[in-house]
Amino acid sequence: MTGVRVLVGTRKGAFVLTSDGTRRAWDVNGPLFGGWEIYHVAGSPADPDRLYASQSTSWHGQVMQRSDDGGETWQTVGNEFRYEGVPGTHQWYDGSPHPWEFARVWHLEPSTSDPDVVYAGVEDAALFRTSDGGDTWQELPGLRESGTGPDWQPGAGGMCLHTIVVDPRDQERMFVAISAAGVFRSEDGARSWKPTNRGLHSEGIPDPDAEVGHCVHRIAMHPARPDVLFMQKHWDVMRSDDGGDSWQEISGDLPTDFGFVIDVHAHEPDTIYVVPIESDSLHYPPEGKLRVYRSRIGGNDWEPLTNGLPQANCYVNVLRDAMAVDSLDPCGLYFGTTGGQVYGSADAGDNWTSIVRDLPAVLSVEVQTLP
Amino acid sequence: MLPAHLQVLAHVPREVQLDVGAPATQRTLLDALEAAYPVLRGTIRTHDQQRRPFVRFFANEEDLSHEPPDAPLPDNVASGVEPFFVVGAMAGG
Prior knowledge:
CATH architecture of chain A: 7 Propeller
Distance between the termini of chain A: 7 Å
Number of domains of chain A: 1
Strand content of chain B: 5-15%
CATH architecture of chain B: Roll
Largest sheet of chain A: 4 strands, antiparallel
CATH superfamily of chain B: Beta-grasp domain
CATH class of chain B: Alpha Beta
Radius of gyration of chain B: 12 Å
Shape of chain B: globular
Largest interface: A-B, 15 and 19 residues
Strand content of chain A: 35-45%
CATH topology of chain A: Methylamine Dehydrogenase, Chain H
Helix content of chain A: under 10%
Largest sheet of chain B: 3 strands, antiparallel
Number of strands of chain B: 3
Number of helices of chain A: 0
Strand order of the largest sheet of chain B: 2-1-3
Strand order of the largest sheet of chain A: 3-2-1-30
Number of strands of chain A: 30
Oligomer: heterodimer
Structural class of chain B: alpha+beta
Distance between the termini of chain B: 24 Å
CATH class of chain A: Mainly Beta
CATH topology of chain B: Ubiquitin-like (UB roll)
């Protein structure tokens, strides 16, 4: 029987939530790596039993974990992330040059075809890759050296490469997003990159239409339509129909267009989801109501999804990597909050239940659809 | 003596015993620790062998964190009479 495995990273450990295809009853396993920050846990599409986890603390730095049995047991793998060559400087918060320094792995993107291959997005922003199951990691320096790197500046959360999207038609074509630099595209397997931020407008930077400097929070793609990208920017929900060459705003009738997550329905490329957050100074939902908004036409026209979600006195946040969709039918959605709740919907967002309520603050949510 | 996070990571109790050899210094002690427990590489000192800022080294009720890494350890620590403490700094309020 099919099932799902939800991989949850939190401020104080990882949790694995499993259910059968009905997605009604859940087993909760954890905390794994208790006390450590788990920025991301991701499973290999090529081998669902192969999982990777990014584990870190401010005290002891970065540790990487790998499981070969679906999360039952784990082994530490390589944790040396060394920038290629002399990494130079980016801008610090005050505009002064600041040396590139590795802080942590924010996001893991396993290859769709080889369980030993994983891309890692790190802070300070750079792209790394392993081809030996995590034992060793090599930087792909073309991104950092693509010309605008010295102009990049951290957002409040650090200068992190937080999103990696690979075109399923062509593994050489990929997108990354960096806070607060923007979106970059490679057509040659991450050797060379160009900024793809035309159409983004950010009032918080000196030139609101600059080539780089935009605080992109998340981008998403439907695998059946890889030229269409959706973006939750610091402010503004955006869409590109030409692979990032240009962007148009699709915030439409959202109550606020600030937020972190954005995701696409597994079977409907024009059905997208966001969780509006009041503002960049008030990191909680408007009116104390936790609402997922869904557009069935690719943006602009949005409907609130509230059934099963708290509609009073709710002041949590939903961070950029904390929403995921499964590929069952109907499509399942999952998201986690800074209040430690993980919510799930087995009907594309119409109805929600809390799978767990009192975890540490959730940093990331991924889901595997199991055979 | 290891802090709690590293005990869990290395699957060891608070106290581990090491055969450091001579000379017994911070560097040779940590080299021996990392050789015995490779998962600790990068967690006490960086891969460039710099002590992590929130890690401290104590022995004989003194803070040895700022001692040169190649300075000899106190005799009673080198001989195993007194422990060498790897401490996670108190932080976070």
